[in-house]
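Usage

Read records sequentially. Each one opens with the input sequence:
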Amino acid sequence: MTVFVRVFLCGLLWAPLGWANPQSIHFQPCALTGSGGNGNLHAECGTWLQPLNPREPNGQQIELFVARLPTTAVEPAADAFTLINGGPGASSVDLLVDFAQIVRAFTRQRDVIVIDQRGTGRSSPLTCDDLTDGIERPDTELALKLTRQCIAGLPHDPRFFSTTVAVTDLEALRKNLGYEQLSIYGVSYGTRVAMQYQRLYPEYTRAVIIDGVVPPQRILGGDIAIHSHNTLNAVLRRCSEDVVCQTAFPDLADEFDQLADRLKTTTIPLQVPHPITGLSTSIDLNYGHLAMWLRFSLYSPEMSSLIPVIIHQAAVEENYLPIASNALRLVHNITTAVNYGMHNAVVCTEDAPFFAQQEVDFSALDNSYLGRDMYDTLAALCSIWPPGEMHPAMNEPLQ
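and closes with the structure output:
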C-alpha cells in the first residue's frame, strides 16, 4: 500500500451505551517500552475485559490494557491524570513512556492511569499489515482488494472501535477504579477523544489539556495535502527571507521542483545503512520517499529546519542518503506505531463520510506535492469499510 494512505487522516442509530458488570483490575509490576521500542518505564499493569458491544454487556468481551503510576501523596487528589495518544491508532501507553519524565511529576499529587484505546497498542489491536506496507503511489483497485482482505481478517467487529465507544471505556475505567474525576491530556486525534469525554461526562472531567487540537467540527483527511503543501511553501519562503539561508540556497524552490520532477520519472537504487537496525539496506528511491519525508518533517521544527539543506544536497549534489535514511526510519516508525484497522474504523466513521460537506479546492489538491491520491484512496477504502458507532453531537462545537 502507500504512504499517501498512511499519512492521512454515518454510524449506527445512537442509544446510550452501558457497561459490563464491574470487574477488578489486578495490577502487577511491569516494565514498559515506548514508541519504536525506546525508553523504559516501571509501572503497574493489568488487563481488563470489556464488552465488544457496550449494549451487550454479557456478550463478546475484548481485552484492554491499563498502566498505572501510583501516587506518592499521603492524601491523594480525588482525580487521576490520563493521556490519550493521536493517530488515530497509536498507543497511549507508548505515549506515557515517551512522556515519563514529565508525567512522573503528576504522581506527587495523584495517580496516573492510562489505557491503550481499544484497537491500539496492547488493547485487542486491529492491524492491517498489508495496508501499511510499501511506498509506491496508490492503486485504488489494489487498495480496495487489500481493504476487503483486512476487514475479513480482523479479530473483532470494527464497528465498535470508534471514538464514541472508546470514551465509554474511559468512563468505565474511572468508575471501576473509584476516581471522582479525570484530568485528561490529549494530543492530535487524542484531543477529539478528550473533548468527547468532556462532552458526555462533564461532571467527571476535572481538566482537559488539548495539544494539537482537532476541533470537533473539523473533518480530517480531505484537505491534508493542501495544508501540507502550504506549510512546505512557508518553509521555502522563510528560507528566501533569511539572509543566511538565502545566501546558502538561493534557488531552493527551483531545486525542489527539479528534484521532484527527477524522482517522479526516475528510480534511484541505493544501498544505505538502515537508521534503526544499522544493517545495509537496498532501497529504490522514488518520489514517494521524498513525499513521505517532507510530509512528516513538516510536523517538526527541528526536521523542518533541515529541509533546505537536504533538498539542496539531493537536487544539486545528488546526495540522496538523507532522504532515503529518513524515509526508512519513518516507514519503520509508522508501521510499528499505528494500528491501521483501528485507524480506519475511526476515519471511516467520523471523517470520510463527511468529505462531501467540505469545500475542498480540488485544483489546489491536484497541484500539491502530495496530490489527490490520499483523498481518492481514503474515500475508496472507506466506501467499503463498515461504519461504526458515532454520537450525534460529536461534530458540534464544544462549549
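Summary fields computed downstream for this record:
- The beta strands are 28-32, 41-51, 61-69, 79-84, 112-115, 181-187, 205-211, 268-273, 280-285.
- The longest strand covers residues 41-51.
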